[in-house]
Write a structure and sequence with these properties.
The protein has one domain: 2-Layer Sandwich (60s Ribosomal Protein L30, Chain: A), CATH 3.30.1330.50. About 20% of the residues lie in helices and about 25% in strands. It has a five-stranded mixed β-sheet with strand order 4-1-7-5-6. A two-stranded antiparallel sheet has the order 2-3. Helix 1 runs parallel beside helix 3. The protein is globular, with a radius of gyration of 19 Å. The structure holds magnesium ion.
Length: about 200
Amino acid sequence: MKYKNLRLVSDGFGLSDHKLSMSPKTNSRSVIRIGYGWDSHEFKSGVPLKLGGIEIGHPKGLGGHSDGDALLHAITDALLGAIAAPDIGTLFSPSDPQWKGADSALFLAEALRRVNSAGYNLANVDSTLILAQPKIGPHVHAMRESLSKLLTIDGESIGIKAKTPEGIGTEGAAIAHAVVLLEKSSRTPRRFRKPNYKP
Ligand code: MG
């Protein structure tokens, strides 16, 4: 195998052999996992602005193959990254016509499904939006409610921050960063586990 040497670099999660095969293998000893994702989309006229699963009144929306919801895309990638699953672009290819104009909540739901099937629950999310306009503050409450429903966690576990892109020249785009923390869904104390051998 071309990348056989990667086996020498143990990441402690049993992922080294699988990171290139796109087949996540989680380690039962990992009680928590962290994931990170980011995304950006360019503002464009004639489309609604969607962020965090809500529509925000604004003269321009975000272009993209799907609905351009950069925040949902960043959280989706963070969830997928936490279990070393294929990323959003691999699972939902921008060249695949079936995802044209798709509601990004679908991508998020699939990422969450994979997280749960890997044996993890989402503990909390933190995110930062970077965009010049519109102001996000007035929409944070609705955005948090939307994410709370989509992610099935309390709003108190969802951080949404927003900044303007001063000095980095990205005024024409919306950028989103997200981190997630996963917890193992069943925490059987080690002393109560059945012995791992056959007599
Ligand atoms: Mg995207």
